[in-house]
TrEMBL record, chains A, B:
<dbReference type="GO" id="GO:0003677">
    <property type="term" value="F:DNA binding"/>
</dbReference>
<feature type="region of interest" description="Disordered">
    <location>
        <begin position="1"/>
        <end position="20"/>
    </location>
</feature>
<feature type="compositionally biased region" description="Pro residues">
    <location>
        <begin position="7"/>
        <end position="18"/>
    </location>
</feature>
<dbReference type="InterPro" id="IPR046335">
    <property type="entry name" value="LacI/GalR-like_sensor"/>
</dbReference>
<dbReference type="Pfam" id="PF13377">
    <property type="entry name" value="Peripla_BP_3"/>
</dbReference>
<keyword id="KW-0238">DNA-binding</keyword>
<dbReference type="InterPro" id="IPR000843">
    <property type="entry name" value="HTH_LacI"/>
</dbReference>
<keyword id="KW-0804">Transcription</keyword>
<feature type="domain" description="HTH lacI-type">
    <location>
        <begin position="19"/>
        <end position="75"/>
    </location>
</feature>
<dbReference type="InterPro" id="IPR010982">
    <property type="entry name" value="Lambda_DNA-bd_dom_sf"/>
</dbReference>
<protein>
    <submittedName>
        <fullName>LacI family DNA-binding transcriptional regulator</fullName>
    </submittedName>
</protein>
<keyword id="KW-0805">Transcription regulation</keyword>
<dbReference type="InterPro" id="IPR028082">
    <property type="entry name" value="Peripla_BP_I"/>
</dbReference>
<dbReference type="Pfam" id="PF00356">
    <property type="entry name" value="LacI"/>
</dbReference>
Length: 344, 344
């Protein structure tokens, strides 16, 4: 990795003290309360236009910025929505969902921060989130239990929302039903006349909460049919795919659900390099409906996944914040449909 | 998009009041100062083991979590490192860099939050960051000017670090020299005997701060040679690539630097569908060295980009926080080397 050496250099002047609302009050010749009313746009108190202007000018001259933490201490709650950064590799689909959500919450005047939880686990992570006193917490993936919800609520969070495959006691749940993704893929392959079906299970850590429900979905789809299911562990690396492809004829499979489009691209390349014909000898289907699947030859069949809109989720958060005593809501929010192209 | 309807439900009991350190002090039968000393592990004050135990037990029983904001108000500064979320689409390379950085800062006892800046611009964004009173701010991309640095420092940030192509007055700069990426690619194509060189310029908003320096790098590499350079605007969409490929013979190019591996994959597919042979008729090179380039046929040549290690950057942030009066440091941190495969 590129090294950053320490460069010694001449010292610049010591930093100025941070201006406070008391400094603004002094310069404007008003009380601190007046400064607070003006800068927070409080409508319940009448303040003359010239006074308002004097406060704004003094704040500008001093470079005064209100302190969100101090303000939330006074107000009793913040407008901070905390999202722990997910502990799984984030794909383009999820990235777009997150930025749409941030945009929608921003429109509702919330401040969204993504908390880097790398290296923090369980209770320790939850306490670190709670220390920031968020008004709402959105937790992707598994990892939060009912106790964690208690800690967050006990620290003033008015809404806790989980995005995952299981609801958690006390929290609103957006259920991401990844079994439906596998079910779609399994039914499609069965409908295409395939009976010896492989399912890729990524070896990468952090993907289990997606891959195991997808696997179960395929199993459920094939339940009661004559089709067989074979689990295919695969790392996202060329040599892992080459080894799997080299043993392909022995596995005697006529179809594979490759977990997602990226693993499908990896495996399809290895199969083609091995001389296995897609889809004649083996049908391949991915998931996520990424651009790259349309660029492969044969064009990759896939499961298109629909996430909830950021706007809908932002509205749920806002409702929950306004009414923290309301019973937790549970919504199934993941839509899955097959897009049939040339590989299956 | 999946709709989240409002589900009415029975109300659960109103939330309990948030426990404070005063509650802990009362239950443990000690002063608030003692609670603070114990829970912050203050070493300058001697407190007996039984008292410590009583405080910890009381805190646990009440579910008390310290308030990071209150603590930072008392301490005069926080341990919060704020990173505005970048305003460009984030690739796998950058994602890995961010999580490595978060991990390294976490090890140094900082709390890292990524601030969702969607919809906020310029001064407004800077003021929103400043309201959280971060001890350090890491700003990716362009968009922060010297005035913004002043606002942040005036609000107590001890270190402001930019990651981009230009240094900003008053801030430490990690210069990401994307000209070097283009220069590498241009020299490589010229060395391979190509003289009519196209450069893909993505139409997508937010990529200019990468694409324009890369374009300039190619131009510089070809300066003083007989080679020509043609700009090729391209949207990341199949129809845009198909249109470009359909007009390819008229363009009369024998090489193309495709901005990155994903645009290279898109363009190479369109060229091959059009019957243009790669690399015989046109050499193609991407950038980023993603897995997908190795899976294409012909295997994609690329520019491997080395980002600074998260650990080095975390140490720079920590040094800057400890010595806020030190002169801003500037480091060139982006390494670029060609990986020659079969497409060029």
């Amino acid at each position: 990795m590129v090294q950053i050496p320490k460069t010694p250099g001449p010292s610049s002047p010591a930093p100025r003290p941070v201006p406070t609302s008391a400094d603004v009050a002094r310069l404007a010749g008003v009380s601190r309360a007046t400064v607070s009313y003006v800068l927070n746009n409080t409508t319940s108190v009448r303040i003359s236009e010239p006074t308002r202007r004097r406060v704004h000018e003094a704040a500008k001259e001093l470079g005064y910025v209100p302190h969100a933490a101090a303000r939330s201490l006074r107000a009793g709650h913040s407008r901070l929505v905390l999202m722990p950064a997910p502990d799984f590799p984030v794909g383009p689909l999820y990235s777009r969902f997150i930025s749409e959500l941030q945009w929608a919450l921003g429109r509702l005047d919330y401040t969204v921060v993504q908390f880097g939880s790398v290296g923090l686990h369980g209770d320790e992570a939850v306490r670190a989130w709670a220390e920031l006193r968020p008004v709402a917490v959105l937790v992707p993936g598994a990892g939060l239990g009912p106790q964690g919800v208690e800690v967050l609520k006990g620290s003033g969070a008015r809404a806790v929302v989980t995005l995952g495959s299981e609801p958690v006691d006390g929290a609103h749940a957006l259920l991401m039903d990844h079994e439906a993704v596998g079910h779609c893929a399994g039914s499609h392959l069965h409908d295409r006349g395939r009976r010896r079906i492989g399912v890729v299970v990524p070896r990468e850590h952090g993907l289990e909460s997606f891959s195991l429900p997808r696997l179960k979905g395929v199993r459920d789809a094939l339940h009661g049919t004559t089709a067989t299911l074979t689990e295919l562990p695969l790392a996202y690396a060329e040599d892992s795919a080459a080894r799997l492809a080299a043993s392909w004829r022995d596995l005697d499979l006529d179809a594979v659900f490759a977990y997602n489009d990226e693993y499908a691209m990896l495996l399809m390349r290895a199969l083609q390099d091995e001389g296995v014909r897609v889809p004649e000898e083996v049908a391949v289907i991915g998931a996520d409906d990424l651009m790259l699947g349309r660029l492969l030859r044969p064009r990759l069949s896939t499961v298109h996944i629909e996430l909830p809109s950021g706007r809908d989720l932002a509205e749920l958060v806002d409702r929950a914040v306004r009414d923290p005593a309301a019973a937790p809501e549970t919504h199934k929010v993941l839509g899955a449909t097959v897009i049939h192209r040339d590989s299956s």
